[in-house]
Each structure stands twice: as structure tokens, then as C-alpha cells.
Amino acid sequence: MTNRYFMNITGKVKACARRMAGLSDKQLQTVTNDLKSQLKSGRTLDQILPEAYAAICEADRRVLGKYPYDNQIYGAVAMHHGCLVEMNTGEGKTLTATMPLYLHALTGKSTILVTANEYLAYRDAAQMRPVFSFMGLTERAGVTRQPGQALTNDEKRKNYSADILYTTHGALAFDYLLNNLVRRAEDRFLRDFYFIIIDEADSVLLDGAQMPLVISGSPRVQSNLYEMTDFFVSTLKEDRDYLTEDKAVWLTDHGVAYAERFFGISDYYDHRNFEINRHVTLALRAHVLLKRQEDYLVSDQDEIVLLDNDTGRSLPGMKLRGGEHQALEQKEHVPLTQEQRSVASITYQNLFLMFPKMCGMSGTISNARQELLSVYHKRVVVVPPHKKLRRVDRKDRYFVTAQEQFKAAIEETLKCHRKGQPVLIVTATIQDTQIFSHMLVERSVPHSVLNADNAYWEAEIIAAAGMRNAVTVSTGMAGRGTDIKLEEGVAGLGGLAVIGIGRMENLRLERQARGRSGRQGDPGSSQFFVSLEDDIVMTMYSEKAGEYLDRSRPIAPWKLRHLINSAQKTREEQSISTREQAVRYDKILRRQREILYGARNRLLDRAQIDRETMWGIINDALTSFVKSHPDLQEHELTRYVLDNLSYELDPEILTPPKDPNELLRRMQQYATKLYDRKISTFDQQEQAQDYMRQCILRALDDGWVEEVDYLQQLQYAITTRGTAQRNPVFEYSREAYHSFEDMKETMKKNISRNFFLGDPETDANGQMNIIFP
Ligand code: ADP
Ligand code: MG
After folding, report:
1. Per-residue pLDDT tens for 236-280?
2. CA geometry: angle at 482 spanning 478 and 487, to 5°?
3. CATH architecture of 392-567
4. For residues 43 and 344, what is the distance between their CA atoms, to the nearest angstrom?
5. What homologous superfamily does CATH list for 224-335?
6. CATH architecture for segment(s) 3-214+348-382
7. Of the residues 79, 91, 365, which should be mutated to test ligand 1's pocket, given the most ligand atoms within 8 Å of the CB?
8. For a substitution probing ligand 1, which of 95, 114, 520 has the most ligand atoms within 8 Å of its CB?
9. pLDDT for 663-685, tens place per residue?
10. Is 483 in the pocket of ligand 1 (CB under 6 A)?
């Protein structure tokens, strides 16, 4: 698809537009049903697109008073073709989305738009709803006005069954996981995924993408390895036994050999020693990477309280994941708290890859063109602005110290402010908003501060940042998605002045900050003030920066620029490779998840279980028991029968014959008798089916929870050992394969046990409840 092609289609939409303009409201509204039946009779989305887009554009005009500009139609066409479109802030992405949403909703399949936070989802859903309902389609928001307020399954089902749904990526991901934890078909609420638009796509697909979303469940049995590994780690020496770099720490060959002697094991990296390996990693991280007073405190109640790195505020109730919290407690010799196990997990990357058709939009996404192509196989299309950009992006100003940097930034702020020109200061860290705010207070400048913790009121404040005299101090993320309109007369003062403080994590964030100004051809300016003391420089090049800051060496201007800019470049390269790594790990989990969720859904949808299948599972369980007990004792057999087959002991099975084949034959005979007896307790065939399905489902879920939890821990333990000719992804996939095979074995055993020992009861509503062993 070339951009020329998109232009061509845009032309076709406009050709249809004239006809739509001539229709009465009533006639326009009938277009929806007409297009639906065209689809039914075999016409394709491509074929009906011009008419559909023209119709919804006309509805946009009549209902909202806004007719999409040509560049918006062009962007909407590119989205139909699965592109990620870059459209500047304020170009009208919300209105643009009405076109592809309308078109895809005509198919009757699930049509969803996700955005970065609940406020935006709720706001955009409410703004666009009148247009869709004018055209006879239902549209809902999948989030509540009150953030965090839980929806019932029935409410969710209602939301997801709407023709069009606006929601957040977080809500969607959790719903996906929850939908696959239900025990009865009626409790499911999602429809099959079909089409999705991702608004603020860079934030959703890149910045938040590699963190897995995890649903926690029942507490894990507490390991006793914390104490032992904690002691072991306290005897290690840096450089000899372990190395650290940035945020990673790992054992050297010397350290590994020592661990093998210490724990009396032959191969530290062997599958069987995973638990030791994992706990050593956790203890190492607790001892080496986490610093008391900096990363956490120990409270008077002997509890670990985490600290926010940026603000230094304490985070009561927050816990580190994957056992790291317990390792930290062990290090500080306070009582260990309970570890929760992960029940289900998914990354956004994988969530979105499940949609047959995905597209997105953002003000700043072209910088990540390459990565988006390789990870998501998505093309980025830059949509030219509706009116020429008039914003002046001034050259960066470089300083050695933060003091000079802040002084210059505040002088610039005051210069603009004295004229009445609105100023928006965007900082790289939360801490800097506070420092800058303090400096403004000292100079008696009234201003607002936004720290990205309440999207609702931040949107109001940021919207007002274009008023005469306004001074707003904000972090990069705060108030995203809300555009800043200029007050009358402000254009004459030069529009909104954006002042950036500190080199940011990546270029996209800086472009996002600049994009706050100059919307729809408004005048405006932007400039960044950066220094060696910026967070990013201090983390990437602390030593080098330190030397220059000590004034022991003067720094050449080119060197200063180079150091600051390459800190950002290196950081971004690191982030890209972390994200790529996460995709590779997640691919493995994804394959397993697909198999499992597929099987689950078939069970919920009442798949028939024939005798052969059920008996095959039971037989496998018996065979594996006999195989793993070459010299079976009488009491072992008794135990096995009681735990797996029957609560009543049959004397004829109790003495095991010496020959394993004979033993297997006798057990099969015995199990056949029990099987027939069990089936005969059900009056109807369908009840027996229901019973078996529930037995299998329970075993599947129990096994899968263990597997998800194990893979989570595995990834955590393995990512830190990417040295010494080891390929972490390869090792992970090998371990994951083994554990999946083990899981299948265990599931068979449990299905068989559930079947023989499960106790079904039918309640007043005819619903079968089973008490499982
Ligand atoms: P973006 O998401 O691209 O930053 P929004 O969708 O928030 O931008 O739109 C910014 C503003 O422009 C809104 O006030 C919207 O109503 C207005 N707008 C968008 N498209 C048009 C249009 N075609 N005609 C008139 N106003 C428009
Ligand atoms: Mg927007």
C-alpha cells in the first residue's frame, strides 16, 4: 500500500461525500443497514469503505458540527490498512477514529478503541457516542468515571457486546485474563477479538509494553531457601564471586563453582537446581542492588517499606514481585511476609498481537518506525498536518551543572511570563517539577504543578495552560491526550512557550512535550535545557559526568553535547533490546497459553468427551505410576489407591505382583470397574459429560496456574544470567518446554484423580457442583 493509494481512496470518499450531503437525516441513517446488508451479500470492507467513511463524516458534521479534514480521512484510510498513523497533537485523532470504528462495527464483530488512561477512554466515548447512535450503532465505555471502580461480569458483557467499545489497554488486558479464568461458559463476557485501534499508540505499545500484567492468587507455599541463600550471598566477594552492571548482578564462574560446593550440587544451572539458582539471584539482588534508605526503609513495625526512586516518597503496601520482597526481608532479618503466586499473566505486546486487525495513532511514533515494524509488523504513516506547523523549535541549550540549567530555564520562563505569554515547563523527572515549582514560588510566580497522578483534574489544568499568564509545570506523561487551546490574543504574544528541562528517556517524549505547542497551525515555541546532572546522564555515564562536575577537568562544548545526547541514545537502544527480549520470552508463554485457553474454551463450550479419550488419560496416569515404581511395596500401592482411585480398599488389588506388566494389567482391570461404576451413578449421559468436563477443567486450571507462576519466576531468574556463553532465551525456552511436558503429566494424573474421587452434587437449579479431592 503506497501513500498514493491512500490518497486515491481518500478521493473516493470525497466523491461519495457530495451524495451523503444531499440526504435527509432519515436517509443518512438508513445507510448503516444498507451497508450491513451489502457486507452480508459478499461485498468487502474495501469495497464499502468510501461510502461508509463518507456517511460517518456527514454524521460527524450534523451531530458534532465538525467535518473531518482531508488529512483526517487520509489517516483513517491508512488505519483501515493496518498502519500506525502519526498525527500531531490537536490534529483531531478522536474524530479520525470514528471512520474506521464505524466501518468495522458494520461487520457485527468486536470493534474496540483503547487509549492510555481511563479519563481519555471515558471522555472520548462520551464525546463520540451521539454520532454513533445517530447512525444506529451502540457505543460504550469499558471503564467507569471513578477510576478503579470494579464492574460486574454482567456490566462487562454489556460493554463488550456494544457495537463499539472505548476502553484502556489495562482494562482490556485484565478482562482478557479474567475471561479465561471463569468456570462456566455463562460467565464469559468477551467476544472474539476482531478489530482494535490503539490511541496514544507509542505510550501503549512501547513505553508500557514489556511489563507483564499479572493476576495474583492464592499464597504460595513458603520456601525455606531464603535463609540459606541469604547466608550464602553474605559470604560472597564482589568481582571474585559476582559482577554488577547497571541494574543487573550475576555470579562469576568462581562464584558458580563456590555455589556448587556450598549447596552440594553438581550443576548450578541444571533444571533440578532451579530453585536454588532462583533464590541466589533474589538474595544477590537484595544485597547488591537494593539500598536501605534509598530504595526502601525498615519501619518500626519491622516491615520493609519501598521508596519511590524519583520522589523519595514511601510506598506503603507496595511489594516487590517474584520473591524479591521476601529476599529483602531476609536480608534485613525481619519476619517474611506471604508470597502471592501469579495466576495469569500477559504482556500488552501479546495482547495486541491476538487481534486479527490492529492499527493505531499517536502524535509521536515515527521515531520508533523500525522497532514497530520488527515487533508488530506494523508500518508507520506520517499524516501531514491540516495547517502548516508554525511552532519554532529552538536549539537545545547545554549546561554543565543543574544549577546553571535551572537558572537559565527560570530566566527564560520569566521573560515569557512578563509579556503575559503562557509557559509550559515539562520536566524529565517528578523531582524536577518540585524543584522548579519551588523556584517559581521564590519569585512569586503563580503556577500549577502536574505529576501524572490524577488524569481527570490534570486534563482540566493542562487544557487551561494556553491562557494568558498561565505557568504550568508538568511531567512528560501528565495530561496526555488533552489539547491546549490558546486564549484570544495569546497568538499575538507568540503562542504557548514549551520549556523542557532535562534530556528525556527518548526522543519521542521530547517531541511529545514540544507537540503541546503549535496545534492546528498556532504560533508557539519550544526549547530544551539540559545538563550533565540530568538523570539520564547520571545513570548512564555517572563516572565521566562526575569528573567534569568536580571541576577537576573543564569540558569542551562539543564533548558536553556528545555526552548528554549519547546518554539518551544508549538508553533508548537498551530499552529497545529489553523490549525485543521480552517479546521473545513472551512468545513462548503465548504458545502455551493458546493451547491451554483453546482447550478450556472447548470444555466450556460443552465438547463431548468420549470414553476413549477419558480412558486414555486414566491409562496414561496408571502407566506412569507403575513405571515410576519399579519395586512397588504394598503400603505404597495402598496409598496410591486411596489418593487416586477409591476411598474404599478392594482386597484383591492390595498385594502388588512382582511383574510390572501384571501389576499394570490388574490396575487397569480395577480402574475399569471403578470407571463403569462412576458413570453408572449418573442418570443421564449429559450429566456424566458435565462431570467429566468439570474434572478436566479443574485439573487444567490447577496445572496452568503452576505453570504461569513457574515461568514468571523462571524469566526472573534467567534474565540476570546472560553471560558466560549462555543464551538466556534459549535456556528459557528449553526449561519452558520441559515444564510444559511435566505439566501435562501432572494434569493427566489430576484429571484421573478428580474423576474417581470427585463427589458431584446437583443443586436446586440443576447446577452440578463437585467437591474435588
Ligand atoms: P488529538 O487527539 O489529535 O490530539 P483531538 O482529537 O483531541 O486531537 O482534537 C483536538 C481538537 O480539535 C478537539 O477540540 C476537536 O474537537 C477539534 N477537531 C478535530 N477535528 C476537527 C475538525 N475536522 N473540524 C473542527 N474541529 C476539529
Ligand atoms: Mg487524542
Report:
1. 999 999 988 767 788 889 999 999 999 999 988 877 787 888 889
2. 110
3. 3-Layer(aba) Sandwich (3.40)
4. 40
5. SecA, preprotein cross-linking domain (3.90.1440.10)
6. 3-Layer(aba) Sandwich (3.40)
7. 91
8. 95
9. 899 999 999 999 999 999 998 88
10. yes
